[in-house]
From TrEMBL, chain B:
Species of origin: Desulforamulus aquiferis
Pfam families associated with the record: POR (PF01558)
UniProt entry tagged with the keyword Oxidoreductase: yes
Protein's recorded name: 2-oxoacid:acceptor oxidoreductase family protein
SUPFAM superfamilies found in the cross-reference section: Pyruvate-ferredoxin oxidoreductase, PFOR, domain III (SSF53323)
Key words of the record: Oxidoreductase
InterPro entries with a match to the protein in the record: 2-oxoglutarate_synth_KorC (IPR052554), Pyrv/ketoisovalerate_OxRed_cat (IPR019752), Pyrv_flavodox_OxRed_cen (IPR002869)
Presence of the UniProt keyword Oxidoreductase in the record: yes
Record domain Pyruvate/ketoisovalerate oxidoreductase catalytic: where: 11-175
Automatic annotation (TrEMBL), chain C:
InterPro entries for the chain: 2-oxoacid:Fd_oxidoreductase (IPR051457), THDP-binding (IPR029061), TPP_enzyme_TPP-bd (IPR011766)
Keywords in alphabetical order: Oxidoreductase
Organism: Desulforamulus aquiferis
Keyword check for Disulfide bond: no
Domain of life where this protein originates: Bacteria
MF (Gene Ontology): oxidoreductase activity, acting on the aldehyde or oxo group of donors, iron-sulfur protein as acceptor; thiamine pyrophosphate binding
Pfam annotation, one family: TPP_enzyme_C
The keyword Metal-binding is annotated on this UniProt entry: no
Transmembrane segments: none
GO biological process, one term: cellular respiration
Protein name as catalogued: Thiamine pyrophosphate-dependent enzyme
Upper classification of the organism: Bacteria, Bacillati, Bacillota, Clostridia, Eubacteriales
Length: 371, 183, 247
């Protein structure tokens, strides 16, 4: 991982055998390896391989799997299990994530470490099964009620699905906050070689707050009910301070050919790979363009944009949506230079050539001898 | 060197399996690989396809829009993907089913009567997909038949060792057909 | 002097906030006494609902989690799967359990989830000020059935214990009341049997308890008890409806 920072710092010890795995299977295996012993979910394409993998493999590690009656129920099972102090995960795709938003608000309010996976498909409504990034707002701005934040991780390869799933559990425990791994349907469905790195476990706080039966200690209560406004405000201030700390310490991104770049393409997930191919083609044509790939969508890597200073003449975001991340890019640079959008929607994906064509269209001056 | 391969056919013709074997073979040969299926309702009947990229370099864009190789196991697949093939690319056609000639002259076309070859020379018609793989390997520099045999050994023969020899035979039948007919 | 009554160790010292004549207090005490008597103080984890009993984590002197409206059986499932050796129960009202949370309660039972649900039925939404519940009786006036519950518009009450008894995964189902000393004793016995059912690992246990809401019914505490006996018991008959250990 290139620039950015994280409170999870790891030393790589040894690389193991390569496996050819589907993204969804890789997430599930990485979760089990991270100590996840409980999974509650409801089948939905294109995330279903995760729930199937968990159903098959959790019993062998003395874990427990429940196919819930709905996503509403699944997320609340996660709430109970996380409150009991055990590593727990659920996974779904867009319509199912919508159903989980209520429970997610409660999980955030009670500061419970739950790991969620959204293998995003095209919406709104029932939509299609094709890849999409249209759940960006829901993921980063809070889809449920109230003022809360999820830590949102956006991998762009099957290997990174593995690495970030592991990190998701540690980040959740570290900050006592739900963590969402978000990936478009292609990443969930594609196979790539992966290795499961043997990594040192970071030092994490004890879960002294968990409801495990009040044997030999004062009782623990997990509730977000605060009818006294003074208590409500004190809670909000505590959460706000936590979110500020996460925003300061957990921004991650990757950058490519950015040092001398006049223009920067911004993309995450699968579109970041497509954009990278477009940047390479542009470079061959002598265009000074680089790529900035947010790895954390929340906290958004504003530090990466600050570091670029005033030398960038324009940005192009590449998104599988009507343009959602573009708003965070504009905020990150205070609208100082033009930010344009290259997008496809409804399950369609742009080609590198399309991205490059759009780039030249919006930045004609970028081309040598351009007007 | 990068090969971008689209394999397409009816559900049940083993196109996903062919893609997986190729990707696995690439991984064992220390190449960069990726495999993307068509997923969702297309899986249940109708035409299914998958894209495989095998490369000596990092694979930036795993989505294949302009393949260098198209394997068409049925007529709709040839119709759908022939136009996406890059000039100089390779079209491998299951001519047991696809009777229409390819209407491009700027690509290399291998027409393989895979089902007849699988039935007559391998004794197992269901291995038509492996015969096609063998034919494709005859024209593909990035992977050898040995790489694919290793992959079949790990993916298939780990649980069904009796399948290894017959799969290897099917690969060789496909490859020999290309060579013997100077395709 | 001989001490004949004392606060259960499973209750805190916080005074109940419930309205005069409301029977939540009695039911809390019965649950707490059984927790103490069955030596579950350090082992019990309770899940609270949304509704009048949404504050009961203040009163039960054990580990508690507060669930979203209707979701307590799902939360309890998560806790029990995480900690199968602990004792896990939900405490839910009729709006919570029989309306917004009916999927969660029925599927917890269908799975035979080894938890206990305490269902407090007072035929009305208390917390929000007296609206129609899924258990509101035909003709009963509430703020959202101001002319009386009319079947052609608002359907019929759900008899939850009878529904639950149909589910194969439910091992113990009782319908009790706390309107009289005799029924209070019977209710406590049923709670104890439900708890035993869980401790023996027999599966899902369910105790429905008819309760009063003098404030929203617009009746005195005494009249409320009479109304419960005359009206509610006709609709929701009492009895042990299912006990797999008795077979």
């Amino acid at each position: 991982m290139a620039p950015g920072s994280s409170t999870i710092n790891r030393k790589r010890v040894v690389a193991l055998k390569k496996y050819l795995l589907k993204g969804n299977e890789a997430i599930a295996e990485a979760a089990i390896k991270a100590g996840c012993r409980l999974f509650f979910g409801y089948p939905i394409t294109p995330s279903t391989e995760i729930i199937e993998y968990m159903a098959k493999h959790l019993p062998a590690v003395d874990g427990s799997f429940v196919q819930a009656e709905s996503e509403v129920s699944a997320i609340n099972m996660c709430y109970g299990a996380a409150g009991a102090g055990v590593r727990v995960m659920t996974a779904s795709s867009s319509p199912g994530m919508s159903l989980m938003q209520e429970g997610l608000s409660y999980i955030a309010a009670n500061e419970l470490p739950v790991v969620l996976v959204n293998i995003v498909r095209a919406g709104p409504g029932l939509g299609g099964l094709g890849p999409s990034q249209a759940d960006y707002f829901q993921a980063t701005k809070g889809g449920g009620h109230g003022d809360y934040r999820l830590i949102v991780l956006a991998p762009n390869s099957v290997q990174e699905l593995v690495d970030l799933t592991r990190d998701a559990f540690d980040l959740a425990d570290m900050h006592r906050n739900p963590v969402l791994l978000i990936a478009d349907g292609i990443l969930g469905q594609m196979m790539e070689p992966v290795v499961f790195k043997e990594l040192e476990a970071p030092s994490l706080p004890d879960k002294t707050w968990a409801t495990t039966g009040a044997e030999g200690r004062p009782r623990n209560i997990i509730t977000s009910y605060a009818l006294q406004n003074e208590i409500g405000e004190a809670n909000c201030l505590r959460w706000e301070a936590k979110y500020k700390n996460i925003a300061a310490t957990e921004q991650r991104w990757e950058q490519y050919m950015i040092d001398d770049a006049d223009y920067v393409v911004v993309a995450y997930g699968t579109t970041a790979r497509i954009a990278k191919a477009a940047v390479q083609q542009a470079r061959q044509e002598g265009i000074k363009v680089g790529l900035l790939r947010p790895v954390t969508l929340w906290p958004f890597p504003v530090k990466a944009f600050a570091a670029l200073g005033g030398k960038v003449k324009g940005y192009l975001t590449v998104e599988l949506s009507a343009g959602q991340m573009i708003e965070d890019v504009r905020l990150a640079i205070n609208c100082a230079v033009p930010v344009h959008l290259c997008n496809r929607q409804g399950g369609m994906v742009p080609s590198p050539e399309e991205v490059l064509a759009r780039f030249k269209e919006v930045f004609p001056n970028s081309v040598e001898g351009g007007v | 060197m990068t090969e971008k391969i689209v394999i397409s056919g009816f559900g049940g013709q083993g196109v996903m399996f062919m893609g997986k074997i190729l990707a696995y073979a690439g991984m064992l040969a220390d190449k960069e690989v990726s495999w993307i299926p068509s997923y969702g309702p297309e899986m249940r009947g109708g035409t299914a396809n998958c894209s495989v990229t095998v490369s000596n370099q990092e694979i930036n864009c795993p989505v294949v829009t302009k393949p260098s190789i198209v394997v068409a196991m049925n007529t709709p697949s040839q119709e759908k993907f022939l136009s996406t093939l890059i000039p100089g690319g390779l079209l491998v056609v299951n001519s047991s089913i696809v009777k229409e000639e390819a209407n491009r002259t700027d690509v290399k076309v291998l027409r393989i009567p895979a089902q007849e070859l699988a039935a007559d020379k391998v004794g197992k018609a269901s291995l038509a997909n492996v015969v096609i793989l063998g034919a494709m390997l005859a024209k593909m520099d990035l992977l050898s038949i040995q790489d694919v045999v290793l992959a079949i050994k790990e993916v298939v023969a780990a649980k069904r060792p009796e399948m290894l020899a017959i799969n290897q035979q099917a690969l060789e039948v496909g490859m020999s057909y290309v060579k013997e007919n100077n395709l | 002097m001989k001490e004949v009554f004392t606060r259960s160790k499973a209750l805190t010292e916080a005074p109940f906030h419930y309205c005069p004549g409301c029977t939540h207090g009695i039911i809390h005490r019965l649950v707490a006494e059984k927790i103490e008597e069955m030596d579950l103080l350090g082992k019990a984890i309770g899940v609270t609902p949304v509704g009048c009993a949404g504050f009961c984590q203040q009163y039960f002197n054990i580990d508690m989690q507060g669930a979203a409206h209707g979701r307590a059986p799902a939360v309890a499932t998560g806790i029990k799967r995480a900690l199968p050796d602990k004792f896990v129960f939900t405490y839910q009202g009729d709006g919570d359990l029989a309306s917004i949370g009916i999927a969660e309660i029925m599927h917890a039972a269908a799975r035979g989830e080894n938890i206990t649900a305490i269902f407090v039925n007072n035929a009305i939404y208390g917390m929000t000020g007296g609206q129609m519940a899924p258990t509101t009786l035909p003709g009963q006036k509430t703020s959202t059935s101001p002319f009386g519950r009319e079947a052609s518009l608002a359907g019929f009450p759900l008899d939850m214990p009878r529904i639950m008894a149909q589910i194969e995964g439910a091992a113990y189902v009782a319908s009790v009341s706390v309107d009289s000393p005799k029924n209070v004793i019977q209710a406590k016995r049923a709670i104890g049997q439900a708890f035993e059912c869980q401790l023996a690992g027999r599966g899902f246990s369910f105790v429905s308890i008819l309760s009063t809401c003098p404030t929203n019914w617009g009746l005195s505490p005494v009249k409320s008890l009479e109304w419960l006996r005359e009206k509610m018991m006709q609709q929701f008959a009492l009895g042990i409806l299912k006990d797999v250990s008795a077979k």
